[in-house]
Amino acid sequence: MINKKVEEILNAQINKEFYSAYLYLAMSAHFDEIGLKGFSHWTKVQAREEVDHGMILFDYIIERDGNVDLKQIEAPQYNFGEPLEIFEQIFRHECSVTESIECVASMSEEECDMATRHFINWYIQEQVEEEASVDDIIKKMKMFGQDKSILYHIDIELGKREYSQHKYS
Length: 169
Ligand code: OFO
Hints:
Ferritin, 0% strand
């Protein structure tokens, strides 16, 4: 049986993961609209991974005989400008998700729920990878300034991202 406080924070995290999916989908639609198909593809793949993150938490709560409590998902808050600004926004968003994952880790520890503390390590590692991959893209965009031909090449590169279902391991 799962600890109630831990169950509550895990349910809140499900909401955050699905909110992330909404945010990336909104970005994907925007990139498609302005003709950056690779950026659109990359953010759409990211949205699918966020749904996977939400579903892993969903399955975990059920496995621990807890109650899944799905709340309303907010409309995404965004202010779309240049691709670089959008990626900086993504980076800030992922840092805030990292903080909330760390809160899940410390709450599990406080409540002596070592199974959840162990489980959440997968998310801690995932956040390290997410922040790093977004940071790489930002650095490339910054290095080459506003050069549109470079943006074109980055668009092609981002279009190669492959989706593979994220599974807890
Ligand atoms: Fe689920 O990692 Fe991004 O938000």
